[in-house]
Amino acid sequence: FFSQPTSTTMAPPHGGMMEVPRPVSNANLTNLTEEELQALNPKFPYMPVDSENKGKQLKIWSFAAPHMRAFHLSWIGFMQAFISTFSAAPMGPVIRDSLSLTKKELANAGIATVTAVVFMRVAMGPICDKLGPRYGMAGLLLIFAPATLCLGLTNDGTNFLIARMFIGITLATFVTCQYWNSIMFNNRVVGLANATAGGWGNLGGGITQFLMPLLFTAVNSSSGLIFRSWRYAMLIPGSLQICAGTAILYLGQDMPGGQYRFMKKTGQLEDKSVLQIFKLGVLNYRMWVLVVLYAFCFGVELTMNEIAATYFFDYFGVNLKVAGAIASS
Question: Any alpha helices (H) in 86-172, and if so which ranges?
């Protein structure tokens, strides 16, 4: 898309020699310094881009807007959704005794956590197409942050189930995470970008397994009130969820060319109806193949995130911190 000026010579009308630029292949852009890139592409000085301004490299250590900032915000938001969704799971034995839950009630709460998100993930596709991934991800985190914060206020199995169901909806941030990277990066690196962002986001399911028992233990050691400590510990993932959602809303950019509203207003992006978008997805056979493949692998992951810590606590006699550390691995 851009060409690097190199020197060639020609004779000017008045005699002598002069330097004129000669185009060079895009392949050589990867060897340019930051100053040379800026001279060629003042709008995206840090990133070689294609004709749609999609990034052609994944610079992990860069946080420059819009490409790499969107990449980092996408996995951070998705990771936070995992941390919040499964924050209660590693404290299951304590919560079970605190709320006098039966084994069935605790299991039903886990099922509710991952059931509602199925429908929200279907809805998030058209939402991203209409509003953009930034509003989609920030909206999920901010709208359902009160559910995370209020989980510690529940006093019976029904309230606990409802709160966890609403928190689980935030796992639909996976859709926005993948969508965002897909419109930011060229097909040369979009697979790498999606895999890295999705993988780092999934780490939240492991991080919360050892993080929440540590927070619970720290609070309990200072207060000595075991049945209140888990409630106070829930304030941490809820607060982090608000911070992540706010950062995405104010620091992110939907597309390389600007925000969705601007792109549609200027005619650079087609504005399709929700029904048109949904129909395109449903009629694509590739979508159904991916549904089957994803169902088999993701179901196992969610099950392990939900029950592993409680299983090791109940059947191997380890404390919460050890059970959480084993589950996180």
Answer: 92-98, 103-131, 133-143, 145-150, 157-168
